[in-house]
Fold this protein.
Amino acid sequence: MQELGKPQELGKPPFVNAPDTVVLDTNVVLDWFVFADPGVAALARAIESGQMRWLGCPAMNDELAHVLSLGSLSARGISAERVLTSIERLQTQVMAPDPHPLPGLQCRDRSDQVFVDLALQVGATWLFSRDRALLALARKAAQRGLAIVTPRRWQDDPQRRGR
């Protein structure tokens, strides 16, 4: 597996409160780079064009590399190296978030907590996910300025995109 670029420190501009900063969970990344899901197309265009800055951390990319190494994906002819190279080109990697979840925003699935923690710590506007455990936090996260939505919902609602 290829190691992605050196992480940048959190809390340094332009990450804090940048209105175009987004975090993608593993399933959204797979939908984009492996399955070419049309429901991710508008989000992919926004990131590729620079309208949105996609942030990730080593733990997220380690999880993705693990998933890409599983037999079911390699049997489909998916090149993990190609996917990871594409991600390195488009994703800004930052240091892992503080491992202490904020009160009231604890994900039922501990492995998904890193997505919420990173998004809140960097002041991301969007966390894109299809994971039920993450989506269940949407209302509480919105009170802190973070929208947790599916890529399709964001794509299909022009008012959400203009948020």
